[in-house]
Amino acid sequence: MNVASLLDRNPNPDGVALVDRSRRPASEISVSQITNAVRVFAQALIDMGIPAGSRVGLLAGNLGEYYTVMFGAPAAGMVFVPMNTRLPKSTLEYIADDADLKLLITDSEHANLLPDISTIVIGSQNWVDMMSGAPLTDLVGVQPSDVAIQIYTSGSTGRPKGVLLSHENVTFTVLEFGATIPGEVMLVSAPLYHKNASMASKMAFASGGKVVLLPQFSASEYLEAVNEHAVTMCSGVPTMYALITAELRQSSSKYDLSSVQRVFIGSAPLTEALFDDVQALFPSALVTNGYGTTEAVLEFGPHPEDLPRPKISLGYQHQNVQLKLIDPVSGLESNQGELWVKSKGVMLGYHELPEANAERLTDGWYHTGDLMHRDEDGWYFFVGRVDDMFVCAGENIYPDSVEQMLEKHPAVHQAVVVPVADELKGQLPTAFIRTEPDHLLAVDAVKQFALKNGPAYAHPRHVWFVDEIPLASTAKIDRANLTKKAEELLALDRNT
Fold first, then answer.
1. Which of 37, 159, 304, 491 has a beta carbon 3.0–4.6 Å from 68's, enabling a disulfide?
2. What CATH number does the domain containing 407 carry?
3. Do 337 and 425 have their domain in common?
4. Residue range(s) defining the domain that contains residue 132
5. Do strands 147-153 and 161-166 pair parallel, antiparallel, or not at all (unpaired)?
6. Residue 385, in any domain of the structure
């Protein structure tokens, strides 16, 4: 089943399926219009002589044409490569080279970032010409195991890894999960290059629902969209809902949020306090703590005995998914350990990374790297990461990659990045720096270097200079000690 055929499953093809708020005024688009654009784009790709299986990249913000490329490349038997607009140019160049992009579609803001790749800018005359042809009559036939999407996720070495998702991976997830939420009006505010935003859109289009698409997240815009379009389903990271709560406290505007029936919170640890705040925002909604990885989704569902779901539980094992918890020390199954997943939704593997595949995949089981606890009723709870990765406002931060970037500064001898707790963003990166002998370095200089050479979300919010880096008994950096020290230093700052 071709990913693009999900559009054909919509029971109301001529009804409004997309409210595109990237335009002013917002435009309303039906599934049949989306489908036609997808097929015109697919036929144009084929007419350009691009071979089946080739990679087609998209570097753009949230806009209606995103879906044309998202579905259009797989419709033509090619592979869709969404690209994170927040990544530095060097990382985008690496992705383009690693994927061997044959064509790049961009918006005007990102049109000149990758000049060595054949590029078509949405809205340009080339785009208009491309979209003026005849539509593809029949979707290109594919095998379930053929790659549909190659989406890049940050790697522990700092180099992104291309996650290979097959047509079956995507359609299985959409049909299994989307069947439980037919006809929802979904608010999509996260970037469409994130898997959760793109999957939510696919679910809505396939099930007869509607997507209300924001160009980017803002608390006021979010609330206005819910109010104006009678949104029934929201999803987001904890940071978003903290900002929405703050906006409501400060704003004199009145919003009717009673239409919201489902709220999914994911991509970062959730506290009971924030859960309660979100439930107060949407008193008639079912609020759930969501979970998913780029490599696999649809791990959890409701309890088969209809037991009430604990506030911050991720859910019960989904009936069509296999799960097990593996103790990182003993390697044995346990009620607490690293989550392993096996299902039709698990990725094929990482693009041309056999060592990473060997590390993360065992006989079809994907090792998530996430520590979970399972209680006596079978409910799963997130505990932490097996490795040192932490999450800031829904973005994964790998200390090693930030440290390597900081150590490229000529005055930095050694850098260690650790997280500190933050009420708004969950965790914030902070850095301890050893400078080169006889080199002076200002805190602002470190921050500006980080902003220039890495993604903005990963730059250290606090920087301290030290004479030495503490080591644990294993001769490795004592990160726990440094995290504790960072918390102490911040507490001193707050009290002075």
1. 37
2. 3.30.300.30
3. no
4. 3-369
5. antiparallel
6. no
